[in-house]
Design a protein that fits this description.
single chain, 329 residues, alpha+beta
């Protein structure tokens, strides 16, 4: 052939050019999905309270003009909460989460979101949306926190909370209402609890080893149940103060040590993440008396499995227990 270009050489060149063309342009039939945004390698990002989490969102190429919009899909509600908007050069945060969020900017195609000081309410589903005015597209990721689920009921007894009261009760105990997936995971790890409790999505469930019909959605104002709360790792530490104290004396004992009486969520988190094992009942901030067990043993709760045991809600004037204190690091 003219110029010394042989037929085999020409075929190889055309095959190479065809391959490069499809790597750049994409093949709609074999590569469905976003045109500009690359699919995430991991759709679930694991983190814990207090950490810094990065939600990856990377462009394969950029359109001439675009914006990237980050939002959080609120569970149980048909809405999204805006977090941050960027045009690749400048970014603006919105809402309470926007103040802790920033762009990673690892390179010019990097639109990943960085969340500092992760909180319990940050767990959930996020959307990275590329807006170019012609063909908008998005990828979804889930931020999952390592934590522990615990059932909660007030001193008045079982089935006292409507949905909103259950939500407040969990927040007062250093937690938040657990999601269905969190409760399901806790059940696979051995949580067996016969009382029904509210979940974040507005449904009512109970984790038992012998299955019964689920409660499903309920009226959030009228119906009353317990609560399933979720909490994660602590920024401080829980410690036990022995003695025969009333509840008011327990508060004073913790204050003298530069601490406060621990909440129920504090004790569960210390049991789960710090291995707190103490065979002594102690006052907690809600007026209950509990103790955490890692290694079950005779005359220490009487149950064969690890867990946080409860003596219920004794009279506050009863001087019979020590106290669990919580101090920030």
């Amino acid at each position: 052939m003219p110029g010394g270009l042989t037929l085999p050489t020409l075929c190889c060149f055309l095959l190479w050019a065809f391959t490069i063309f499809h790597k750049v342009q994409g093949d709609p039939a074999s590569h469905p999905g976003p045109h500009y945004l690359l699919p995430p390698i991991h759709e679930v990002i694991h983190s814990h309270r207090g950490a810094t989490a990065t939600l990856p969102c990377v462009l394969g190429t950029t359109p001439p003009s675009y914006k990237v919009r980050w939002s959080k899909v609120e569970p149980g509600e048909l809405q999204e909460t805006l977090i941050l908007v960027t045009n690749g050069l400048h970014a603006r945060g919105y809402g309470p989460l926007g103040g802790r969020a920033r762009m990673r900017r690892g390179h010019r195609l990097d639109a990943s979101l960085v969340i500092a000081g992760v909180r319990l309410e940050d767990e959930g589903r996020y959307r990275c949306e590329l807006i170019n005015g012609i063909e908008d597209e998005s990828v979804a990721l889930t931020l999952s926190l390592e934590g522990v689920v615990f059932p909660y009921q007030p001193s008045r007894g079982r089935y006292q909370f409507n949905y909103y009261e259950a939500k407040q009760a969990c927040e007062e105990q250093d937690g938040r209402l657990a999601t269905y997936s969190q409760l399901y995971q806790a059940w696979t790890e051995g949580l067996d609890w016969c009382n029904a409790g509210w979940l974040l999505e507005g449904s009512v469930r109970y984790p038992v080893l012998t299955a019964r019909a689920p409660y499903g959605p309920r009226d959030r104002m009228r119906d009353r149940y317990d609560a399933f709360c979720f909490t994660s790792a602590l920024a401080g530490q829980v410690f036990f103060v022995p003695g025969r104290l009333t509840l008011s004396e327990a508060h004073a004992a913790c204050r003298r040590r530069g601490a406060v009486v621990a909440k129920v969520g504090h004790l569960y988190a210390a049991w789960k993440f710090s291995g707190l094992d103490q065979c002594d009942g102690g006052w907690l901030a809600d007026g209950s008396v509990r103790f955490p067990i890692i290694t079950p043993r005779p005359r220490c709760g009487g149950l064969p499995d690890p867990g946080v045991r409860s003596f219920g809600f004794p009279r506050p004037q009863q001087a019979a227990y020590g106290t669990y204190c919580y101090a920030e690091n």
